[in-house]
Design goal:
- The complex is a heterodimer.
- Chain A is mainly α.
- Helices cover about 75% and strands about 0% of the residues of chain A.
- Chain A has a single domain (about 85-295), classed as MetI-like fold (Orthogonal Bundle).
- Chain A is built from 13 helices and no strands.
- By secondary structure, chain B is an alpha/beta fold.
- Helix content of chain B is about 35%, strand content about 20%.
- Chain B has helices at about 45-55, 95-100, 100-105, 110-120, 140-150, 170-185, 195-200, 235-250, 270-279; strands at about 10-20, 20-30, 35-40, 60-65, 70, 80, 155-160, 190, 205-210, 215-220.
- The longest helix of chain B has 17 residues, at about 170-185.
- Chain B is globular.
- Classes of the chains: A mainly alpha, B alpha/beta.
Chain lengths: ~300, ~280
């Protein structure tokens, strides 16, 4: 009764599940440098690049720059002192926790708003221009206003983080939902659900929500950088205790090396968050492949 | 067409307008229980709109569609659609996709599971239950699309150019398989296609639409017995019917309505165009 599912001359056979069970995801062939070099080599190459850049910096600074320009040798030597500094640690914790909190709030608000905008054409018409303009404008311009409204408090910082981070999420989620329910009956998942008599709430939970997850994560990825900008600028302007203020204070008191170490910590934090997002895509959305977006949406 | 009282699908004077533009004008035909009616016509003649109306996804501007005697006002029970671009949910596995209609209908889990397994096996996807759509070839994705449609045990199957985005060999293979599966579970079927050969091979009757606005030019009795297999393609009757359909489609005003016929090269470009036109 059943026939073999082998089609002549069609696309590549799917990766057998056993492959994935054994720990490897089916990756697109030839993708990424790790395929060509192996993971060990990639790390070595990156380390070499870092050493070369630092050496160039060291050489240029000591050969041509005045003594107050930081050199890697001095900055690197300063790392243990900074990382052991109680004031640095409490400031950093305060900033990074605020960023995480803001990202979580932004993800919730942004997803809800994006779903509504993506699904309801009237709401979209009403809000699209404003979301787009806000997305395009430099939100940090609002910091002085927010310090008036919320005072020179961590609340003002949180507010700016939330505003910064929400916009790319709304934008992306709305776009993703719109693509998924493009209602022309061909490839529009909403039509498929309706044809199978799915009630309205199933279209929201079973189509719009899963369809928007990749765009939510893409939006979050963009939001990380914006949230960090908002936090640091808010601290600069409002003089709030935090890693941004630590940087400002140390630069002004001629401790540029300490400030640079703090900048490095910000970079590391941003990279860590982005790596987590990446992991979430791979682990949480096993169905999501770039090709899915291209062919189906 | 007079409406036969026993018809499973009755399309009566269906007219559909989008704004000032009329896409379909006064289309009438019916489909008996267990009958396959092919619909052919040039790009942009409203084939997809017709299907959407029958499926309850687009209300007619005038006229009615009745299924099993009941007027269609929304997606009706017992009607399943197979989409040109498969319409599989990429976040669901093959199993989850095939089970979708049953989940929505609230069929009990155990029963649903059993039915889904049977269907996956019927369409030849054993062993791929846990695969995601992106891991499957186009042909396999459409097998899953077919299984999903059949899972709800439909009285009416609506096929929207189901094989148009597949390569030629896969298309030939799936046509014959669809016939085989249909023999086991005969449902009233509306089969929209760009391919005149496919229309003749599948259909008991063929509705030929003309373009702009879409209207019925002719309804042809194919008159080839069942079960059918590949040998049908070599029969005299097949050739006669195909030539008749071809001539009728070609009679459309030249230029805009150029038909995309049996031998048209892989239709992807044309379909993209027609999709835009049908909006």
């Amino acid at each position: 009764m059943s026939v073999p599912a082998r089609e002549p001359a069609t696309a590549a056979r799917p990766a057998p599940r056993s492959l994935r069970a054994a720990g490897g995801r089916p990756r697109d062939p030839g993708g990424g440098p790790s395929r060509r070099y192996g993971p060990g080599t990639a790390v070595t190459v990156r380390v070499i690049a870092a050493v070369v850049i630092l050496a160039l910096w060291q050489f240029t600074a000591s050969a041509f720059a005045p003594a107050y320009i930081p050199r890697p040798s001095r900055t690197l030597a300063q790392i243990p002192a900074v990382l052991g500094d109680q004031q640095f640690l409490s400031g950093t914790a305060s900033t990074l926790l605020a960023v995480l909190e803001g990202l979580v709030i932004a993800a919730v608000i942004g997803t809800a708003a994006g779903l509504v905008m993506g699904r309801l054409r009237d709401v979209d018409r009403l809000l699209r221009l404003y979301v787009n303009s806000f997305y395009a404008m430099p939100i940090v311009a609002l910091v002085p206003l927010l310090t008036v409204w919320f005072g020179y408090t961590p609340t003002a910082r949180l507010a700016i983080i939330v505003i910064e981070a929400t916009l790319p999420i709304v934008f992306n989620v709305a776009e993703g939902v719109r693509a998924a329910s493009a209602g022309d009956g061909q490839g529009g998942y909403e039509d498929v659900a309706r044809a199978f008599r799915a009630p309205w709430w199933r279209v929201w939970t079973g189509v719009a929500l899963p369809a928007c997850l990749p765009s939510l994560l893409a939006g979050l990825d963009l939001a990380i950088g914006r949230a960090l900008i908002g936090a640091v600028v808010a601290e600069f302007i409002a003089g709030l205790n935090g890693i941004g203020y630590y940087i400002l204070f140390n630069v002004r008191s001629f401790h540029q090396d300490d400030a640079l170490v703090a900048v490095g910590v910000l970079v590391a934090f941003a990279l860590l968050l982005r790596a987590l997002i990446n992991l979430a895509v791979r682990r949480g959305l096993p169905w999501y492949q770039p090709s899915v977006r291209g062919e189906q949406a | 067409m007079t409406d036969a009282p026993g018809a499973m699908i009755q399309v009566n004077g269906l007219t559909r307008r989008y704004g000032p533009r009329t896409v379909l004008r006064d289309v009438s035909f019916d489909v008996a229980a267990g009958e396959i009616v092919s619909v052919v016509g040039p790009s942009g003649c409203g084939k997809t709109t017709l299907l959407r109306s029958i499926a309850g996804l687009a209300p007619p501007s005038e006229g009615t569609v009745c299924i099993a005697g009941r007027e269609v006002t929304g997606p009706p029970e017992g009607v399943a659609v197979v989409f040109q671009h498969f319409g599989l949910f990429p976040w669901k596995t093959v199993f989850g996709n095939v089970a979708y209609g049953l989940t929505v209908a609230g069929v009990r889990r155990k029963e649903a599971e059993q039915r889904v397994r049977q269907l996956i096996s019927l369409v030849g996807l054993d062993g791929f239950e846990k695969s995601y759509p992106y891991q499957l070839s186009g042909g396999m994705q459409q097998r899953a699309g077919l299984a999903r449609a059949l899972a709800i045990e439909p009285q009416v199957l609506i096929m929207d150019e189901p094989f148009a985005s597949l390569d030629a060999q896969t298309r030939d293979l799936l046509q014959l398989e669809l016939l085989r599966i249909w023999e086991q579970r005969p449902a009233a079927m509306v089969f929209v296609t760009h391919s005149i050969d496919e229309a003749v091979l599948m259909g008991d009757r063929i509705v030929i639409l003309g373009g702009r606005p879409g209207h019925v030019r002719d309804i042809v009795d194919v008159g080839i017995g069942r079960p059918r297999d590949r040998s049908v393609l070599d029969s005299e009757r097949f050739r006669v019917v195909r030539d008749h359909v071809w001539t009728t489609v070609m009679q459309s005003p030249a230029g805009l309505d150029r038909p995309e016929g049996a031998q048209a090269p892989a239709g992807d470009r044309h379909q993209a165009g027609s999709r835009k036109e049908q909006g």
